[in-house]
Amino acid sequence: MTAVADNVEVEARIIARTARRLRHAGSLGVSGWIALGAFAAVVLIAAIGPLLVTTDPNAVSLSEAFQGPSAVHPLGTDASGRDLLARLVFGGRTALIGPFLVVLCSTILGTALALTAVWFGGWFDQMVVRVIDAIFAFPGLLLAILATALFGAGLPAAIAALSIAYLPYIARIVRSAALRERNLPYVAALRVQGVHGAWISLRHILPNIAGLIVANATLAFGFALMDLAGLSFIGLGVQPPTADWGAMVGTGMGGILQGHPAEALYASALIVITVAAVNVIGDRLNERSEVRA
To answer: How far apart, in whole angstroms, are the C-alpha atoms of residue 159 and residue 166?
Structure first.
């Protein structure tokens, strides 16, 4: 009966702490909600926009190059006569999916590695720390450039390289939070009751630091978007004629020199708005994901 009572008490404390954190995390503030609305609008346009914009984003018509806004082309055309609105909408999918995959892969691998290292500790933990430090020595963008040089330009190689480059950032944060959580009394109580370490990590430690993981993954999304856009800008990321915001900034540079800055300005504005919105959301989530007793 005593063991059962202790277990119930531990569970009650965990539920109470989790509820407090969720309640705290729910308040993003005015700027946070504005940023969330802006990001949701960008995602919604990228998701359903292609269903509403029926123009082929890759259709070339040199006779319509650099046209201004019109009923046929609401935002005008680029140097090849392609509809800018269609390319911005379809390019949003590529621009958002790439960073999402980078963050997803790096977060899953980094979290799993950090939790395993914290629980086993000792030489395994030290080895993981050394590996993380070694990866830190390589800038993410440089690693992506090397990967594209070895495996060819394109999105898959860039995503794989940036996932590895972002892994230590997530792993360090998760390891620090999990180590602090592992030393709390409720973990010791669960261990005394004979609960398996993997169950404690997945059922208790991970949910308690989930807010911190989500906050930092959100911040990483913005950096990944900029890195992938930069790679596409220099021709190592998304390859033409596929629409992508970073690639549009690159191809639009020639238009600027010819007095037609619309393509580069529109694509740059969407990148800036999306990254700024994601960073604000990440900052607000990070402020409210601090561990509380």
So the answer is: 10
pLDDT tens digits for 199-221?
Answer: 777 888 888 888 889 999 999 99
The domain locations on the chain are: 2-28+88-287
> d(Cα 184, Cα 129) in Å, to the nearest integer?
22
Nearest to 174 by CA among 80, 106, 234, 93: 106
Residue 27 confidence (pLDDT): 62
- Paired tokens of 258: 């010819």
Fold of 2-28+88-287: MetI-like fold (1.10.3720)
User: Are the C-beta atoms of 247 and 233 separated by less than 8 Å?
Assistant: yes
pLDDT of residue 63 exceeding 80, the answer is yes
Cα(208)–Cα(183) distance, integer angstroms: 13
Would the pLDDT of 292 be above 70?
no
Length of the chain: 293
> Considering only CA atoms, which of 85, 61, 69, 6 is closest in space to residue 270?
85
The C-alpha torsion from 33 through 37 and 42 to 46, rounded to 10°, is 120
Cα–Cα distance measured from residue 47 to residue 13, given in angstroms and rounded to the nearest whole number: 41
pLDDT over threshold 90, residue 123? no
240: DSSP letter? T
